[in-house]
Amino acid sequence: MEINFQNLEGTINNNRHRYVVKVFYEDTDSGQIVYHTNYLKYFERARTSLLNLLKIDQINLKKNYDIILVVRRADIKWLKPAILNDTLVIETCLKYAKNSSITIKQFAYRYCHISKTKQLLVSGDIQIVAMSSNFKVKRINKILENPFFQNNC
Predict the structure, then answer these.
(1) Which residues of 69-98 are buried (b: 16+ CB within 10 A; e: fewer)?
(2) Using CA atoms, how far apart are residues 39 and 23, in angstroms rounded to an integer?
C-alpha cells in the first residue's frame, strides 16, 4: 500500500498558501452546520502548515530562540456556513509584516469538485506576534526574510 503525503501541508502558488480541510461530523452541530469556532481551528491548521512548508519550525523557534508565535488579533467575517462533508480550501496570504508581527488574510472557501469552483464562506485578518516565554515582544527579522513575507496579497 502506498500513501501520497506530498501535499499534506498544502501548496503555495502566487504567494498564496492553500490548505484542504474536509468537514467531518465532529465539526458540526445537529443541523450538520460547522460550528463557527471551528473556522479558527481550520485557520490555525493552515497557518501551521504554511510555516512547515516554509521550513519555519515552531518547536525549534521556542527551544533555541525563545520565540512563540501568538495570535494577537482576529477579525473574522462569517458569510455562509459549511456543512457536513464539504471540502474546504483555506487560503492564506500576507497582508503586511513588521519587525515583530505578521498580519495575514485567511479565507475559507467551499470547493466544488464537479465545477472546480469555490465559494467564499469565511474571511479573516489575523495578526500574529512573536513573543518570548515571558511575554515580551521579540523581533523576527530572520523569518521575515522568507520570500513569502515579502509580497502582499
Answers:
(1) beeeeeebeeeebbebebebbbbbbbeebe
(2) 11
Percent helix, strand, coil in the chain (nearest 5)?
25, 40, 35
Q: Name the nearest CA neighbour of 152 among 102, 80, 88, 85.
A: 102
pTM of the model: 0.92
Per-residue pLDDT reduced to its tens digit, 44-99: 999 999 999 999 999 999 999 999 999 999 999 999 999 999 999 999 999 999 99
How far apart, in whole angstroms, are the C-alpha atoms of residue 38 and residue 21? Answer: 11
Q: How far apart are CA 22 and CA 1, in angstroms?
A: 23
Residues designated catalytic = 29
Of the candidates 17, 13, 72, the one whose C-alpha atom is nearest the C-alpha of residue 42 is 17
Q: Which helix (H) or strand (E) holds 31?
A: none
Task: Give the angle subtended at the CA of 13 by the CAs of 61 and 49, to the nearest 5°.
Answer: 30
Secondary structure (3-state) at 38 = helix
Q: 3-state class of 127 per DSSP?
A: strand
Q: What is the mean pLDDT of residues 14-42?
A: 94
92, 108 contact by CB (below 8 A): no
